[in-house]
Amino acid sequence: MSETVRSTERSVSALLFELRGDDYRSVAVWLGVTPYGVCLIDSQHSWLTTRAGDAIVVNGKRETVAAVELYSVSPLSQCDRVVTCAADWIAGNC
């Protein structure tokens, strides 16, 4: 079952992480659902605090996050916005 993280006016159900590389690649992560083949390397982070430059594992390969994009959020007008991290956006810091 998926989970939505909310503040008073903002909520996040899913994020899109763009990955560094020669071609455009990204991975979507729905909060509260363990993505198959995707995990965090640093146990001190959560998907909400993941930032550009952080490392994640995708299908057994270490990848570096190039950007964090709001994927399934409320308000809808904020979808596709690139943010520092989702936790900062929820708090209204970006």
What oligomeric state is this? single chain
Q: Give the fraction of residues assigned to helices.
A: under 10%
Major sheet size, sense and barrel closure: 7 strands, antiparallel
Low confidence ranges: none
In one word, what is the shape? globular
What does this structure look like?
With 94 residues, this protein is mainly β. 5% of the residues lie in helices and 43% in strands. The chain is built from one helix and seven strands, in the order βββββββα. The protein has one helix at residues 86-90; strands at residues 5-6, 11-19, 25-30, 38-40, 55-58, 61-74, 82-83. Strands 1, 2, 3, 4, 5, 6 and 7 form a seven-stranded antiparallel sheet that branches. Strand 1 and strand 2 form a beta hairpin. It is globular, with a radius of gyration of 13 Å. 18% of the residues are buried.
